[in-house]
Design a protein that fits this description.
The protein is 39% helix and 17% strand. The chain is of the alpha/beta class and 233 residues long. Helix 1 crosses helix 2.
Amino acid sequence: MVKVGTLSIAKNLDSIRNKIDSFQKGPSKNKIKLIAVSKRQSIDKMLEAVKAGQLDFGENYVQEARQKRSLLPKEARIHMIGPLQKNKIKYCPQTFCSIHSVHQLDVAKALQKKYEASEGSIDILIQMNLHRESTKSGLYDYDALIKFVEEIEPFKRLNLRGLMTIPDFNLGRLQTGLVYGKMRDYLNKLKKTYANRYDISELSMGMSADYEIAITEGATMIRVGTAIFGERD
């Protein structure tokens, strides 16, 4: 992949934002948040993105996110989009605005305990893995999703906002669209079931190669990295 210089980051962001705007006027009426996936990207590239108006970033590793958090302006927001280890949860309150990858009860319990101690709360999304890929994390189906939501319902420090998925990169456009459509259906069912308990509205799906498909199928958050920053450092 061709490297993207810092002067091109603003142009790349403008191009993606224009595409988002065209979808918001067309097939999708959702308000879509662009999350710039900055894992293993330099802080200089991230600061260039901030200059271009980008404030939401996605990170996969807690230690890397912590280091970057201290160098970013206060108004920037970091979303945890990778697997979260229990021994790193102690760093979450000062690092992340949301966690997109929750799907294990022990992790949810540890998050609840930490945010109870810090007298705060955290927005979470539940990760789904509808194709049951061994290399990816997440719950497999709607029954597992409902069971998990019931298990975390007592955890008042966790604000359930929606769902996240990362489909197999090799599925092709049609199958990818079907996965995203099923995620949309799951979210709509979840909204109805838990309308009195949670403010559920977010669907985090779609990356550089398929975010347009994701938007068409109802994504409210897209996670784009290489199309903004180029290859990783």
